[in-house]
Amino acid sequence: MDAVERAAALRAHAEDTAGCTRCALAQGRTQVVFGSGSPDADLMFVGEAPGFHEDQQGIPFVGQAGKLLDKLLGGIGMTLLIPAIVVSNFAVLIGLFALSTFSYAAWSTMGLTFPADLYPNRTVATVSGMSGAAAGVGTILSTLAIGKITDRYSFEPVLIGASLLPVIATVLVFVLIRPARHDKTVI
Questions:
Q1: pTM of the full predicted structure?
Q2: What are the tens digits of pLDDT across the range 33-43?
Q3: How many CB atoms lie within 10 A of CB 43?
Q4: Residue 127 included in any domain
Q5: Which of 25, 97, 115, 166 is in the most buried spot, having the most CB atoms within 10 Å?
Q6: Are residues 38 and 89 in the same domain?
Q7: What helix, strand, coil percent values describe the chain, rounded to 5?
Q8: What are the φ/ψ torsions at residue 140 (nearest 5 degrees)?
Q9: pLDDT of residue 152 exceeding 70
Q10: Are residues 38 and 73 located together in one domain of the fold?
Q11: Are 30 and 99 in a shared domain?
């Protein structure tokens, strides 16, 4: 079966399952969350059950779990700076820095919208402003720290810290901040 036939078969299966009522999910759902992405993907993420936002949109991983997955994958991508300490192949170094930079850009872009996910609409501008101010101060302090560390030791601790800090921050945010509850939940 070629790629076109596989895609057509998946679409047909999605249409067949759209009206399924064989399990308890059918009682509380708005629509079937079948899946999305390329039928030729080498990697697939399977969720346990659709949450509120997935049920509303019919797309997997658009709710809190999807945001956590995106941030964790971005954080994991940033850890690709760590092997750069011991790699001497220039092409590999370029690849590691490129993937890490892409992951950082994706992670920081999601971070910019994070206050809107956590706080009521009336307070988002205030929280975003405070976050921006803190980021500015953090940038100044980290630049000073990077200079002092590289002068005294080497660039290795900076690469390790720059790789691990976003992952630790993401885990802390999701451990310390509880998501808002919605009126309708899907089981």
A1: 0.54
A2: 888 878 888 88
A3: 5
A4: yes
A5: 166
A6: no
A7: 70, 0, 30
A8: -60, -45
A9: yes
A10: no
A11: no
